[in-house]
Amino acid sequence: xNSSRRHWQTPLFxxxxxxxxxxxxxxxxxxxxxxxxxxxxxxxNPLTLADYPIKAxxxxxxxxxxxxxxxxxxxxxxxxxxxxxxxxxVIAYLDDRKAKGFNTIQVMLLPMPSEWGTKNYYGDTPFNxxxxxxxxxxxxxxxxxxxxxxxxYWDHVEWVIDQAGQRGIQVAAAxxxxxxxGRDWRPYMTTSASTSYGTFLGKRFGGKNNLFWILGGDNxxxxxxxxxxxxxxxxxxxxxxxxxxxxxxxxEAKRHLMSYHAKRRSxxxxxFGSQAWHTVHFxxxxxxxxxxxxxxxxxxxVRPVVMPESYYDARTSSPILxxxxxxAQAWWSYLSGAVGFxxxxxNIWDMDSAWKTALQxxxxxxxxxxxxxxxxxxxxxxxxxxxxxxxxxxLAGGYGxxxxxxxxxxxxxxxxxxxxxxxxxxxxxxxxxxxxxxxLGGGNVTLSWWNPGAGGAKTLIGTYAGTGTRAxxxxxxYTDALLVVERAGTPPTSxxxxxxxxxxxxxxxxxxxxxxxxxxxxxxxxTGTRFEDQSIPLVPATDANRAQMIRSCIYGTxxxxxxxxxxxxxxxxxxxxxxxxxxxxxxxxxxxTLVQDNYVSGAPGEWKRLGxxxxxxxxGTLNLTTSGGTANLSGLEVYRH
Length: 641
Prior knowledge:
This protein is an alpha+beta fold. It contains 13 helices and 32 strands. A hairpin with a 4-residue loop joins β15 (412-416) and β16. α5 packs parallel to α6 and α8 (289-297) runs parallel beside α9. It is elongated and about 85 Å long.
């Protein structure tokens, strides 16, 4: 390569940085009333470059696109792609993965010295004299690899990022893979070198939409230096990693998500959870991904959780996973609190001679089927049933235990915070499956099986009242199974209306039923501040009287309604809520029971009729309370069975 070097400068990007955690509200496609299954609410498929950069949702539980649409991170791990493949092969790879539904690729920006040496496919090195403070760049930028004097290592990296972006694929870039035991780039990444390298990365690539920064790589930043080559720096890398992250942050023109890839069985949050740059928890798990993902979900510092590297297909050392066990890692992750999962194949991560054949592995098709299935549901609302403090689980029996067969038989489940659906995954056949039909908060529920190993359509079990439990037999021919529980639409009211109350406004008629004004109403106590704004457009639009009721409300972080003189019996309770300002997240309890967990209110104007919640009243008073974020309570309907 020509020895002349191109000087790198700050690109002329608009420096409009987005502060993560203070971005616009997470927008949900809320329905006026459930009508069949939940809507698909993920970002449109296919994604485009305009959907990036991805950011954290307002409540820090999920990921959203640049325009606020929910985003599920579905990654492949072609780690060696930037250094191992030619332009033609990069295109072949990207086209295949786009067709299979992957929206993210996790790659190493640098070659692995311990595996491939220090040069890329075209014979170029990333640095002068292995010094990260001195990127090896020519004086002329080009996308033509035939121009040996111009096309340098970093031109190829940029070309890869741009090609992925043209296909709507995010590049999760591991910028300086430290390596197992520190065997790769760790000893070179001193604090000084990391600062210079991070500055270069931020200026050169920080304006790209489709980036996600990964620091570290198979290595804990403290200790973990057993494989550092003799005579090289074995000191800890916490300071250097922070320096690298902060240098990128200070110089990137667009704000990107960032995390740290630690050693397996370690979380990025254990080392960098308090750092402002650390915006996603990476839960690097063993085979039983549910345990590590759930631990990160339960952390006090809430961040979206990604499982960044699974055990790979075609392994030759233990654990050797068959197709069922490979996909179980993904299902365990997504239903235990992760918003992202990274699939892998032994022949693809290092782009060896068999990588093109490996693209067609059935295990990748299973991930495609998984992603396609979940795209039909509002999975950004899923909350793991085994999260800390939760007592309302989708199953009353059938989970198994984490102590049996090394935890490989353990079932997991998650339920949408709006009560619209729940999913339970069983990695192995079993008896004793019992569904908690009340887990969605009442109303009728529809049960179905879905086959993770075959894909296709769901198999209907039946529709049942949302009370009590129901035992299920294992579906014939399944090796693993997904149970789908869905709110069967808001059922026709079968009971007698006890009271309907406009909590913040006047008496009116809705759906032919008389609603009371709360002001002066007998046997009614409200806690909250009255508020009304009839100018805000509702989403979705509705009739005039209902709109008037919705836009008049009481609000508070501990709003409550106490309805007295209620005869002992069983009741269906509905609650109208809406949002006038910015997204809030809150819980609802009726008669002391949590009936709505982590409800996300949505954007200004969004509203929903929650319920029905089936409750029993024995003391003459029906009590409804909220907690958490500010809740706008508009109307309450109570029907007696």
